[in-house]
Amino acid sequence: MTVMTEATGIEPTVDSVMGQILVELGSSVGLLLSALGMRAGLWAALAESGPLTPPELSERTGVAAPLAREWLRAQAAAGYLRYEPSSGRFTLPEAVAVAMFAGARRSDDRRLHEHVVLDGRRLR
Hints:
The protein is mostly helical and 124 residues long.
């Protein structure tokens, strides 16, 4: 069986398909983590408090400290948070806060996000 992309007429390689799969998986994980941050109040805590360490975020939100730490690291790796190594604090840049909160109010994105991603009954 030969698979060709319609746009280019070029047969994809195993490496290009694997690359596409990894990009899509990364996007899916990013979406889930963003939704988790909204649902658990992680984004809101950072927006209200300013820079926080993982234990401080855990205390403010009730999310277990190891989970808060890994969520913060993932968001920093994605470029949504800034990490300050000297203090161990993570900062939510203003542009990200506006996009997360004002954008969700301006459209149905947040409701769609919660409906598709977070409602366990729809994931089964």
